Amino acid sequence: MNKHDLLQATIARQATPRTPIALWRHWPIEDRSAEALARVTLEFQHRFDFDIIKVTPSQTFVAEDLGLTGVYDGNAEGDLVKGPPPITTLEQWEALRPLPVSEGALGRQVRCLELIAAGAGDTPFIQTIFNPLTVARCLAGPRAVIWRRRYPEVFQRGFNVIIETWSAFVAAVMRTGAAGIFLSTTDASYSVMSEEEYRRWGRPGDLEVATPSRAGWLNVLHLHGEELMIDLVADYPFQVVNWHDRKAGPSLREGAARFSGAVAGGLAQWDTLLAATPEAVAREAREAIAQVDGRGLILAAGCVTPIPVPESNIRAAIAVARGSG
């Protein structure tokens, strides 16, 4: 069974000869170059032969073309630390115009995907997309939340521009041969906003940006954080859902009962992958598979794999997924 067929069967919750596995990480220096990010992403894939290549740029790329900067401070997660938000006034917000997806940071990322497509072989690849509310915060920082609440009509005008840009970018991603997108939201959480707010601002933007990805077959929704509004996004047209099941819950078993398609998770990236032994990683992987009776699971971490994770721990998870550990 090739990777495409394995993943399709997993999405359909059919019995499979092994459990698909995918881990991904940040590349805090290489992610500033299309060629370098493609090279290290493919090298990582060739070393471990995961069933999905998830392409992970820094979050700063969403606003780099409008002046957002980032520096790497050595953190284990590997994401860049964002500089000051480039938009500080409502006038700047209203002056937003759609960005060309063939130039600047967005064009660089499209070029990276084209290079990955050329070297990925039969492994499907997906591109990380940050949802429009996240992009708004990268552009305006805390002001984005204030403007959304105090001046919703003004905020909507700039927000529409963000949605237009990222819809066009997702369409460009799909033209590279990507199997889908990895849509990340930190906002579908009761610790961030109310259900009413997310219905008003989160869902419409998420779904519109994701529309071009419906041409794909492997779209992953990533719910970041705790106190998740799972029932509010359970009907999104995505084949896979990923969240911090070990840290924040719900469990894989509970999540699988609330979503159609596959769930991705089972491995705690900090407490287990980074800090535990290969034997502990293997136990956690086996327990994750058992939670869903071996069906409908892509073994993965709840988010990015920390850079210092020992290779022996990665290989322990792979061995369990492939039935040899």
| Count of folded domains | 1
| Number of E-type strands | 9
**Helix/strand/pairing category:** alpha/beta
Mean pLDDT: 97
In DSSP terms (H or I, runs of 4 or more residues), the helix count works out at 13
CA radius of gyration is 19 Å
Overall body shape: globular
Low-confidence stretches: none
Terminal-residue CA separation: 20 Å
Structure characterization notes:
With 325 residues, the chain is of the alpha/beta class. It has a single domain, classed as TIM Barrel, CATH 3.20.20.210. 44% of the residues lie in helices and 12% in strands. It has 13 helices and nine strands. The chain has a seven-stranded parallel beta sheet. Strands 2-3 form a two-stranded antiparallel sheet. Helix 9 links the parallel strand 6 and strand 7. Helix 5 crosses helix 6. It is globular. The model has no long low-confidence stretch (mean pLDDT 97).
Quick take:
With 325 residues, this protein is an alpha/beta fold. The protein is built from 13 helices and nine strands.
Can you give keywords for this protein?
12% strand, 325 residues, two-stranded antiparallel ribbon, TIM Barrel, alpha/beta
